[in-house]
UniProtKB/TrEMBL annotation:
<feature type="region of interest" description="Disordered">
    <location>
        <begin position="548"/>
        <end position="591"/>
    </location>
</feature>
<keyword id="KW-0378">Hydrolase</keyword>
<dbReference type="GO" id="GO:0003676">
    <property type="term" value="F:nucleic acid binding"/>
</dbReference>
<dbReference type="InterPro" id="IPR012337">
    <property type="entry name" value="RNaseH-like_sf"/>
</dbReference>
<keyword id="KW-0540">Nuclease</keyword>
<protein>
    <submittedName>
        <fullName>MUT7 Exonuclease</fullName>
    </submittedName>
</protein>
<dbReference type="Pfam" id="PF01927">
    <property type="entry name" value="Mut7-C"/>
</dbReference>
<dbReference type="GO" id="GO:0008408">
    <property type="term" value="F:3'-5' exonuclease activity"/>
</dbReference>
<feature type="compositionally biased region" description="Polar residues">
    <location>
        <begin position="565"/>
        <end position="575"/>
    </location>
</feature>
<feature type="compositionally biased region" description="Basic residues">
    <location>
        <begin position="553"/>
        <end position="563"/>
    </location>
</feature>
<dbReference type="InterPro" id="IPR036397">
    <property type="entry name" value="RNaseH_sf"/>
</dbReference>
<dbReference type="GO" id="GO:0006139">
    <property type="term" value="P:nucleobase-containing compound metabolic process"/>
</dbReference>
<feature type="domain" description="3'-5' exonuclease">
    <location>
        <begin position="336"/>
        <end position="537"/>
    </location>
</feature>
<dbReference type="InterPro" id="IPR002562">
    <property type="entry name" value="3'-5'_exonuclease_dom"/>
</dbReference>
<keyword id="KW-0269">Exonuclease</keyword>
<dbReference type="InterPro" id="IPR052408">
    <property type="entry name" value="Exonuclease_MUT-7-like"/>
</dbReference>
<dbReference type="Pfam" id="PF01612">
    <property type="entry name" value="DNA_pol_A_exo1"/>
</dbReference>
Length: 693
């Protein structure tokens, strides 16, 4: 606003006998103030607010102010959000009769102005005198969950009432249509955004934001545990990728003494086991005998008087037989140290914090199975050439806090990550550091400060070799390897045994299998790094691997491992991703409507972004095999968009130029620009949102 206009406004106020009444008269007779942005009405209102502060006049007579307040209230439901606070302040609405304000808000509500009623209630702090369920239900039906959060934000009692109400709606026997019925014909109603799944997500978000004990919401917790239970049965009996001990740990911690979950456990046992197996697991999980079918209960009686040693031994032999198919630690068992005291940990520091040291770093935490909050690190693994240290983080943090030295552990970890003279090896470091920050808030800036790090996840994307599908075919029925396990298999000859990956890492003591798994996960990084540095060319990497990885680390994890594109081949050997020479012409321009693609399952964000721009997109689901992309591409004439190792397999199954490797470290928008530029797709304004999302 120009200085001249401000001065003119202030002179106008000075000439008015009653500036408050004058402003109202102006706003009531003007239409421009109802629009968005900084209208003239908005500028005048803001100037009056400042003018009143500079000229505290004689207080308005009570009856006169009440009349002005009544007129203002009638306008507030129509005025833009940026005028609410100034008008409430100028006309001192916080001092108005509370019952009168509540009555006005109630009138707005009955007219169907639910959003306006809620916003005015928030501004005037009327929530404690209102029915939280009544106020919030229509907002949730209109997909205004953010406004609901704001409505209860400052009132813990209302937060609890709201969460209890939402949890009641998630009860299996509750009919959600009963809630919707009174609001038939509601404007902007979004039924697809109002179901148990969406409500469950909202409940968990509110529990986390307001730091409320999840026991307040037993229905959503039970449903989440039931999904975990079904997932665990799938991992153990269908996928067969979980050991008995590991599976039993999780089943017990998931089901506990909950009778409802015990009932579902029994049903699942009967579906996946014979009577004898169901009885054995029911005994292991302490299911009350009265909950078991008669045949299982009878079998349980027999188990009490039978010796099961023979069966356990057979199971152990079977597990031991499998081990030879996997990567084995090359160091003796006595060189793996599980550290629970600071005396032991200080000795570990002396060895790790030495210039020139190469350290494999990994972390483990208890799987959350979708529960509230970020996972907290339960174990930190540090591997050196001759030994591995497993740090019991919860125990060490507790001990340090008891001694009044809680900064000890973060200090050590920050020294390790920020020292450029120590090479730290990891796989997917960003996720590990995020969990580390959730475990210890003093470590939240570690990622910004780190130097001398090599994330082998970035190297993995550049290694030529077997795709997960090929390795699956070679080994028959076993699940295809992926991630670090696939890289270990390709570089060192055998995959990692991942059966302990989903262990309960917070339970103490750790089982021997967990200790060996944790040590292997960190130590294999040393062996991979050594092998790749010795012979990078045989893995399709540039000969300057050591220099590009260690000599020029960036502090940002995503940039730190990219090879110099001018010196080294691209990860998948694609010539077309280099800058085009003058002789190679770009393809003829096409519109998004003419461009059809199938996106591999690691590129769903890219797929959705391209669809927004009008491109004909098909997305692979998370559980789909990468090879499905080639089938769809051949049948429907689509271009495959993929990344990393799957590119090696897929490009040979379609015509030249029909498979494109996208940089996975970029965001969806950057990936989309890369794709559009390469295929010369010209997007116009009319293409945006031209397809159903």
């Amino acid at each position: 606003v120009s200085r001249q206009l401000k001065e003119e406004i202030r002179r106008g106020f000075a000439r008015l006998e009653d500036p408050l009444a004058g402003l109202l008269a102006m706003l009531e007779s003007s239409s421009d103030w109802k629009g968005k942005g900084h209208s003239l009405g908005y500028c005048i209102t803001m100037e009056l607010q400042l003018w009143i502060k500079a000229h505290p006049a004689v207080p308005q007579p009570g009856t006169k102010l009440k009349k002005l307040q009544a007129r203002v209230l009638g306008m507030l439901s129509q005025c833009p959000a940026n005028l609410l606070d100034p008008l409430i302040s100028i006309y001192q609405l916080h001092t108005a009769d509370r019952n009168y304000l509540l009555e006005h808000v109630s009138h707005l509500y009955l007219q169907g102005n639910y959003k306006e009623a809620a916003m005015l209630s928030i501004k005037l702090k009327l929530q404690p005198d209102q029915d939280v369920e009544k106020m919030c239900t229509p907002l949730l039906l209109q997909d205004k969950a953010n406004l609901v959060e704001e409505y209860v934000a400052e009132y813990p009692e209302l937060q609890r009432k709201l969460l209890q109400t939402l949890d009641t709606w998630c009860e299996p026997s509750f009919n959600i249509r009963d809630i919707i019925r009174p609001y038939q014909g509601l404007s902007k109603y979004k039924p697809e955004k109002f179901n148990r799944r969406v409500l469950s997500k909202l409940i968990f978000r509110l529990l986390e934001r307001f730091n409320i004990d999840s026991a307040l919401c037993p229905n959503v917790i039970n449903q989440r545990h039931l999904r975990t239970l079904n997932y665990l049965f799938y991992k153990r009996f269908v996928e067969k990728t979980m050991t008995e001990e590991n599976w039993a740990d999780h089943i017990q911690s998931t089901v506990g003494e909950n009778r409802w979950l015990q009932g579902h456990l029994v049903q699942s046992l009967l579906r996946h086991c014979d009577t004898h197996g169901a009885a054995r697991w029911a005994q292991h999980c302490r299911v009350p005998p009265e909950m078991l079918p008669q045949a299982v209960a009878e079998e349980l009686q027999k188990l009490h008087i039978q010796d099961r040693v023979e069966e356990v031994t057979k199971a152990d032999n079977y597990e031991a037989g499998k081990k030879k198919d996997y990567y084995q630690l090359p160091i003796p068992r006595e060189n793996i140290h599980f550290l629970q005291t600071w005396e032991e940990t200080l000795q570990c520091w002396e060895k790790v914090l030495q210039a020139g040291q190469v350290v494999g770093v990994d972390m483990e935490w208890k799987p959350s199975f979708g529960m509230v909050g970020k996972p907290r690190v339960a174990l930190l693994q540090l591997a050196l050439k001759d030994e591995v240290f497993l740090l019991d983080l919860p125990q060490l943090l507790e001990q340090a806090e008891a001694e009044g030295e809680k900064e000890k552990l973060p200090h050590f970890i920050q020294m390790l990550y920020s020292d450029a003279a120590i090479t730290k090896l990891g796989y997917g470091m960003s996720g590990d550091l995020s969990s580390l920050a959730a475990t210890c808030s003093a470590l939240k800036d570690t990622e910004k400060q780190m130097q001398g790090v090599v994330d082998l996840l970035a190297v993995d994307k550049q290694v030529d070799g077997l795709s997960p599908e090929h390795s699956h075919e070679e080994r028959g029925a076993r699940q295809p390897e992926k991630g670090l396990s696939l890289l270990v298999q390709h570089v060192l000859g055998k995959p990692l045994d991942k059966t302990e990956q989903l262990s309960n890492w917070e339970k103490r003591p750790l089982r021997e299998e967990q200790i060996l798994y944790a040590a292997s996960d960190a130590y294999c990084l040393l062996e991979i790094y050594e092998r790749l540095c010795k012979d990078p060319e045989s893995f399709g990497l540039g000969s300057d691997l050591t220099e590009s990885l260690v000599g020029k680390q960036s502090k940002k994890p995503r940039a730190k491992k990219q090879l110099n594109k001018q010196e080294a081949p691209s990860p998948s050997g694609q010539e077309f991703q280099e800058p085009r020479t003058e002789s190679s012409r770009p393809p003829a321009p096409i519109s998004p409507q003419e461009f059809s693609v199938v996106c591999d399952n690691m590129l769903q964000g890219l797929g959705r972004y391209l669809r927004c721009l009008g491109v004909d997109v098909r997305l692979l689901d998370n559980e789909d095999d990468h090879r499905k992309a080639a089938e769809i591409a051949r049948q429907e004439g689509r271009v495959i968009l993929t990344s990393g190792l799957p590119y090696q397999t897929l490009r040979s199954q379609v015509g030249e130029g029909r498979c494109f490797s996208v940089n996975c470290s970029q965001k969806a928008k950057e990936q989309a620009l890369q794709v559009l530029k390469h295929f010369n797709v010209q997007v116009s304004l009319g293409d945006i949102f031209s397809r159903c999302q």
